[in-house]
Amino acid sequence: MTASPSEPYDLAVVGAGSAGLAGAVTASELGLSVALLDSSTQSGGQFYRHPAPALGAVRPEALHHDWSAFSDLRRRLGASTVDHLTGHHVWSFIRESGGSGGSGGSGEPEESGGSGADGESWTVHAITGADGTEERPVRIRARALLLATGAYERQLPFPGWTLPGVVGAGGAQAMLKSGLVLPGRRIVVAGSGPLLLAVASSLAAAGARVPAVVEAAGYLRYARSPRALATNPAKAAEALVHGAALLRHRVRVLPRSAVTEVHGTDRVEAVTVSRLDGDWTPVPGTGRRIACDALAVGHGLVPQIELATAVGCATRALPDGTLGLALSEFQETSVAGLWAAGETGGVGGAGLARTEGELAGRAIAARLRGRRADPAPDRGVRPGRVGELRRRRDRMRAFADVMSAAHAPGPGWPAWLEDETDVCRCEEVTAGRVREAVTDLGARDARTVKLLTRAGMGWCQGRMCGTAVACLAARDGAPEPPAERRPFAVPVPLATLAALDEPTVEQTP
After folding, report:
1. How large is the angle between the packed helices 466-474 and 446-453, nearest 10 degrees?
2. pLDDT tens for each residue of the chain, 509 residues long
3. Are residues 114 and 196 in the same domain?
4. CA end-to-end distance (rounded Å), the chain
5. How many domains does the chain have?
């Protein structure tokens, strides 16, 4: 690499999970210079988390589904010219010149021109350093950007959820995959979404006792979309694999139920599981106690789109009430020159993420070279790889929407909360204070509740409590809050901001 700011990368990819890896290696193999930035020290993202070499894991693939796909991407990354920049926490990016108009709606890369062809480029701001090392600002310049930032867990609070031993469902899986440790020996898995089955089967396979998988939704809603099920047989096969594992380990699955209280003093000792009606309201008299020393809980995933919304990217409402990026047929956002793939457009799994990543990589290469990504629609040419990717993406995205709708939280879940229940853990704001802001002080939205109570102003910036605060503010279990435009996607030290006017490391090809 050189330090010449006049030679930006062709493409900067943010996120080295399934989508980011697929997009980076595809673009590189098509001749683009690519920078792949990720906050982790290893590729794979959350889905393919794996132990550090120092742990000496003999078979890390035993804890993963479809490990061969990741192995192939990792091999291609090693053989490519991609600059894999680990430990880079991207907090913002800006367009250096030109307008910020969208792609016109069709999403088809133009025959000529387009982002990067007329001198426009992006500057990506990141900080490096971890584990107590000195943080330093870094600027990466690129003609095009691909966001593959994934998602984070959605949490719905309930009495006792701040007790030690309560962890996110995805967090429990991450502990096992990356650290080969369990959050406890007797672990109840609860919440909603297909992730619960994967978490429970992996915990049981690692030696934990899993008394129950507590699913707030049911599985019958999948039957309402037989076409999506029939065209995605791999998903059914994956569910059967997890189901067989749960049967083998004698794990009970309790649908239409939720953990409505956690018991214990210094840590989790038991949970109360209650039956739910169709709106997720607990049915009186159905609570029963299950002994455990840990609870892994999560109610689906939320697309991580803060970087995109900060520059004005349009969003779309997903069937489960969350927001994803509105994307063209070729994965471009409403801001020209900025593409996205994977969970940013809606949660759909690693297979969909890889497909979207490759599609975006090919579309970006075509745009920067002044060609169309897929000539078939206009010229009668038999669809090639891009057409195949689009059909596969649409098929898997249809199933993802069915899955999202099937596990959408019902409006009655706030009935779990007592006034003393912490909703915002960072600022220790209780449900009672939020309700007071709504009923007594006139708050009608999450933003006003935040100003009155500080809910959402802590370290996580509302990622943990945003859903709960929005639902309580709307009084009816309403959807997620609208996307906020924030200048910083991650916490940034003041020293980093102060150093922006000073010469910084320019990493370019």
Report:
1. 110
2. 433 455 899 999 999 999 999 999 999 999 999 999 998 888 888 888 877 777 766 677 777 778 888 889 999 999 999 999 999 999 999 988 654 444 434 445 444 344 554 557 899 999 887 554 567 888 999 999 999 999 999 999 999 999 999 999 999 998 998 888 999 999 999 999 989 999 999 999 999 999 999 999 988 888 888 888 888 888 888 888 888 999 999 999 999 999 999 999 999 999 999 999 999 999 999 999 999 999 999 999 999 999 999 999 999 999 998 999 999 999 999 999 999 999 999 999 999 999 999 999 999 999 999 877 665 554 444 558 899 999 999 999 999 999 999 999 999 999 999 999 999 999 999 999 999 999 999 888 888 899 999 998 888 888 888 888 888 888 654 444 555 677 788 778 887 777 776 544 455 55
3. no
4. 5
5. 3
Do 272 and 317 belong together in one domain? Answer: no
455 and 375 inside one domain:
no
Asked if the structure places residue 75 within a domain, the reply is: yes
Same domain, 289 and 314: no
Question: Quick one: 244 exposed, middle or buried, by C-beta within 10 A (0-12, 13-18, 19+)?
Answer: exposed
What does pTM read for this prediction? 0.88
Closest to 145 measured CA to CA, from 1, 325, 336: 336
For residues 286 and 337, membership in a common domain is answered with no
Residue 500 lies in a domain: no
484 domain residue, yes or no = no
Domain assignment of residue 168, given as a range: 155-299
How far apart, in Å, are the Cα atoms of 151 and each of 144, 306, 454?
22, 11, 24
Residue 460 belongs to domain with CATH number: 1.10.10.1100
CATH code assigned at 190: 3.50.50.60
CA-wise closest residue to 468 among 489, 450, 488? 450
**335 domain residue, yes or no:** yes
420 with 372, same domain: the answer is: no
Nearest to 481 by CA among 465, 501, 461, 466: 466
Closest CA to 27 of 39, 35, 17: 35
